[in-house]
Design goal:
about 150 residues; 5 helices
Length: about 150
């Protein structure tokens, strides 16, 4: 069973990570809007009249960080949910405001299955997802303040 199909805006400055994410999501039938940087992601969001279900953004990027990208994207697309990714530590992520509000987080490195699973959780769909297990699985990243991430722990 696959997750619901949706439109996902990707803001990821690492080309290999971005290609991997796009490939995994497109294999699941999602429409992917691809951006190599935060400013371009905001421009794409402002130009498109279509619904953007999820903004998948790296937390730490040049010029704008992930939470700032989300604030700007959600100004024109209030229905959009944020999925943050990062390879940085808990303290660095906390300083960038990721743990405020209704957020989802996926620690790098992650597998295609882990990405598909969290997309499914965000969309509140049911069933198993599939995806390549091309990276080493790791424990789920946990909030140092609350011990859990909304949308990941039940």
């Amino acid at each position: 069973v696959r997750s619901e199909r949706c439109t996902i805006l990707i803001a990821e400055d690492d080309v290999s990570v971005r290609r991997f994410i796009c490939q995994v999501l497109q294999q699941q039938g999602h429409r992917v809007l691809e951006s190599a940087d935060a400013a371009n992601a905001v421009e794409i969001a402002e130009r498109t009249g279509d619904k953007i279900d999820i903004l998948l953004t790296d937390v730490i990027m040049p010029v704008l960080n992930g939470p700032e990208v989300f604030r700007q994207v959600s100004a024109s697309h209030p229905e959009t949910k944020a999925l943050y990714t990062s390879g940085y530590t808990d303290s660095m992520i906390t300083r960038h405001g990721v743990y405020s509000g209704d957020t989802f987080f996926l620690q790098k490195p992650f597998s295609g299955k882990q990405l598909n699973d969290i997309i499914c959780r965000i969309l509140n769909c049911s069933g198993e997802t599939s995806g390549p297990e091309t990276t080493v699985p790791h424990p789920v990243h946990r909030c140092p303040l609350h011990g859990r991430i909304k949308g990941i722990d039940r």
